[in-house]
Every structure is written in C-alpha cells, then in structure tokens.
Amino acid sequence: MLAFALKRLGIALLVALTVSLITFSMIYVSGDPAIAIAGEGARPADIEAIRKFYGFDRPIALQYVDWLAGALRGDFGRSYTLRQPVADVIFARLPTTMILGACAIAFALVLAIPLGVLAAVRPNSFADRFALTLAVVGQAMPSFWFALTLILWLGVTWRLLPITGSDSWQNFVMPAIALGYYVTPAVMRLTRAGVLDVLSSDYIRTARAKGLRPMTVLFKHALRNAIIPVVSLAAVQFGFMLGGSIVIETIFQINGLGYLAWESIQRKDLPTMQAIVLVLAVIYVLLTLAADLLNAFLDPRLRVA
Amino acid sequence: MAETGMPRAGMASAAEILAPSPGALLRRRMFQHWGLAIGATILLVVVLMALLAPLVSPYDPYDQQLARKLIPPIWHATDKATWAHPLGTDHLGRDYLTRLLYGARISLLIGISAMLISGAIGTTIGVLAGYFGGRVDMVVNFIVTTRLSMPVVLVALAVVSLIGSSLSVVIWVLGLLIWDRFAVVMRSATQQVRSREFIAAAQAVGCSTPRILLTEVAPNVANHLIVVATLEMAHAILLEAALSFLGLGVQPPTPSWGLMISEAKGLMFFDPWLISIPGVALFLLVLAINLLGDGLRDVTAPENRG
C-alpha cells in the first residue's frame, strides 16, 4: 500500500508540474502577451511599457521559474485590474464555488443513487426505463440553457426562488441543480452496473439463503460494495464541476471562482486567469489522488500502479 | 467484429446456407433498435435542413428588418404571429427559422471538424499505448491524466480570448482539448485486440508493425471509434454553444445556436420563446447524435449491452 501510495503521489506531483508549465505557456499562445493586454491599435511605446512593467522582457524560463516559485508560496502576483494580490481574490471566492460544487454533487448523488439501485433491482422495468430516459435526456441538455429554463420556471413563472446573487441558501438551489444534473447519468449508470454486478455474486446468494430480509441484503450487503466506484467517480466529477461552474456562476451571478474566471477573461487579467486554471487543476489532481488511494485502501486488488 | 470463418471442407448443411449472414443480422438489429432509428432520423433531418437551408427559407440569415422585429412564433395566438415567419423574428427583425437553419450548419461544422481533429490525436496515442504497452502506455497515461486535470471550458475560454475568436479558432481549440475519451477508449480496445491470436499470427508471418496496425488492429477497433466519435461530436457541439453563449465562441452576426440564446438572454423574461427555440434545437441535435452513438454501440457489440 505504501509503495503504491508513494508512486501515485509522485505521478500526481509530476502532473501538477506539467499543468503549471502548460498554464504558464497559455499566455504565450497568442504570441506576445503585451500586445494582447494593450489591445488592438495600441502605440508601440505603450506595448513596450507594458512589456517592461509586467516583466515580459525577461527570458521565458526565468519568468516561469519565478512564477512557479511564487505559486508554491501562495503568491500568484498582483491582478492587473483588481489592484490586489491574486491569491487574496481567489481564496476569497473559492469557498463559494466549493459550496456550490458540494450542493451540486449532493443533488446528483441523492437523485442518481436511488434511481440506479431501483433500476438494478428491477432491470427492464418501468423504473429502469425511466432512469435510462432521464440519463439520455440529461446528457443532451446544454447546461446554460437548462439554467435559463430553470430561471424562467422556478424564478419567474412560479416565483419560488431568487434568480441571481449568492446571499442566502435559496440562491444555491437552482445553480446546484443546473450544475449537478449533468453528473446524474454517469453516477446512475455506475450505481446500476455496480449493484447488478454485486447482486449476482455468491455472498449475496448466501445472505438471501440465510433468510435475511431483501432490504437488509440490498442496503447492508450489496450497496456497500457497489458504492465504492461511485465514491471515486463523485470525487472526479466534483473536480470537473469546479471547472464547469464558470457557465453556471456567470448566469446566476454567483460571486465564486467561476465568475471571477469569467471577469478576468473579459479583462485579459492574465495572472488571475493562470492562477485559477492552476488552482482548479491542482484541486482536481488532489481529488483523483484521494479517490485512487481510497479505492486502493478499500480494495487491495487495485494496488497495482 | 470483422472475422470470417475459415472455409470448411465438405458440404454445408441446409441450415447453414439458409442462416442469415452476420451483415444481415447487423442490418436487422439496426432497424429494430428504436434509439438508433430515432437518432438517425433526427440527425438526417437536421443535416438536410442545414444543407438545403437556402431552399427551405426565402430569407437571408443576416437580413435585418427592424420594422418586423420580435414577431412571435406561429403557435402564439396573437395577431402579430404570421406564417411568413413561422418561428418569428429576433430583436433585429431577422427571420428566426432562417437563423436556426444556418445555425445548424455552424453546429454541424464545428462538431464534425473538432471531432476529426480530436479523433486523430486521441486515436493515434490511444492505439499506440494499447499496442505497445509498457513505457509508451505509461507516457500516454500521463498525458491523458494531465489533460483531464485541465478544466476544459476555462482553458478554451482563456485561449480563445487571447487569440481572438473565430470559427477556425474555436474548432482548433476544441479539437485540441477533447481527445481524452478517444485515447482512453482506443487504448483499451487495442489492448483487447492485441492479445488475440491473429495478431500473433500476423507477427509470425513477418508483417510490419504499421501494417498490423492498419490491417489487423484498425478494422477491429473501428466500431468503438465510431461510437466515441459520435459522443465527442455531441460534446463539441455543446461546448461550442457554451463558448458562444459566453461571447467567446462564434462571433455575431454569424448564426450559432449558443449565440442566439446569448443574444436573447436580455429578452427572455418577455419573449421566452427566443431562448426555447434554439435551446430545443440544440437539445434535439445532441440527443439525436447520442442516441445514434448508443444505438451503434448496442448493435455492433450486442454482447456489451448494459
């Protein structure tokens, strides 16, 4: 287990390092970042001044090492437009996005696990077909359009929930649904497959033969094993959600990391853009690492790297 | 799987001659599969509408007639609704049906192009990883893990905003970002094929590696490739719509479904049909492609139905 954990940790570190390199070079895809910041029609003198001011005139390798060393200390430089350290802005906004992501994943799990279990217990029944239809429909629905439709129905027609903002818990209901439903099909399919698989195993037959009640067999014996892969899927999907929340946060004007990302992209605020991409990538790497380690801990067969 | 049985000596029995060929069985499964039929039909209709847009609609998608702006679609029982504009007009008086038809071209173009680019990248590295294994596999695994940890929408938005958005930029950015599923699926499909006897036989006969990959491996992973290709095409269409919706995809006045929803956002409380029509179109197209993909997976590999 220790060897596996160390190897897995090493890969995670290497991935994070590569991501940092890609994130850093992102600002050079357009050619000269100074021109991108100055905008079209800027005078050469202005562009030169910007290049000097932000240090783009130094060797690229030096800029990268400098930036990475700063990032490791939690210093992402100063925002071009907000006039304060990027780290302060990011960590002020991160909790909101985390809460939104947690609500969204909770919504997805609460909806998907019971449906998946139901579909597995009665394959090809009405419940199974309903769950399958829901999955197919859910995967085809564009999240931003779904969010707007939710606003129209729940916010305007029925006036149940506030449309924008992030002040009370009610503000998080619609965004959590809009963000979470997209994960539901994957969780449901995995739960269904897992439960189906476990239900046909020998120890379940033994449990049934002992005369245990069907509900006890299902929840205490079957679900406990079938749920392991779902946990790691949920962790990975949580990471995807943090990245995907940019669309939802923009629509609902929730003051989280996604909205910050959108603002900084609009204003060409490179340090903030880079820092957000890096922070989200590192969170994703940590989540997958945790999921892998948890799985390996629970199931020794997975401890081959 | 494309396998042909060895011809046997002696007479074949009547039952063997009369039995339907694998191809006939496949065609029968295709016609009996509801999802596949529905998906293929919707997709065919959308493709035809997109190709024949100038014949279907008498209007120009860019033609603004401010005097006729915001005419509601035909099912709204107001006297403003007219059969001259069955789906109404937008805030600039452009015929909504026409913009929808030309928007389908953009969605399909981006979906197919981005899918081809990502397919080329993902298939290449996936097949190499699956066939060679070992170090190659480790490196490819690492590349895929790294790619998965980068948030797609965010990176796409950032890169598009820095380069400046245009149709080809959106296609390339999406194509270079979403090859991960191709790589993962092609890797495991190749791994399965690689352990079969006919690969060992081809190696024993002295076939070169490129030849084995092209003539032995490729036909046997093609069905997986088609399934992923449809799913990734749908994925690319959804991402383009999201980018355009956020203002960093296809630029106005080009008709794109995501852009139509974005332009109508401010008016959605008064004229909700402005966002429902392109939204439903987008939903139906993606649904159709997904149904087609799922259906193809079912009929080409019936043993994997889950």
Largest sheet of chain A: none
| Average pLDDT score of chain A | 84
Q: If helices are DSSP runs of H or I spanning 4 or more residues, what is the number of helices of chain B?
A: 13
Rounded Rg of chain A? 24 Å
Segments of chain A where pLDDT lies below 50 for 5+ residues?
A: none
Strand content of chain B: under 5%
- Name the average pLDDT of chain B: 84
Topology, number of strands of chain B: 0
N-to-C series of helices and strands of chain B: HHHHHHHHHHHHH
Number of strands of chain A: 0
Description:
The complex is a heterodimer of chains A (305) and B (306). By secondary structure, chain A is mainly α. Helices cover 75% and strands 0% of the residues of chain A. Chain A has helices at 2-26, 33-38, 44-54, 60-72, 86-121, 126-140, 143-157, 173-180, 184-199, 202-209, 214-226, 228-252, 257-266, 270-298. In chain A, helix 1 (2-26) packs antiparallel against helix 14 (270-298), helix 7 crosses helix 12 (228-252) and helix 8 packs across helix 12 (228-252). The longest helix of chain A has 36 residues, at 86-121. Chain B is mostly helical and 306 residues long. The two termini of chain B are 18 Å apart. At the A-B interface, helix 1, helix 6, helix 7, helix 12 and helix 13 of A face helix 6, helix 7, helix 11 and helix 13 of B.
Structure characteristics:
heterodimer, A: 305 residues, mainly alpha, globular, B: 306 residues, 13 helices, 69% helix, 0% strand, flat
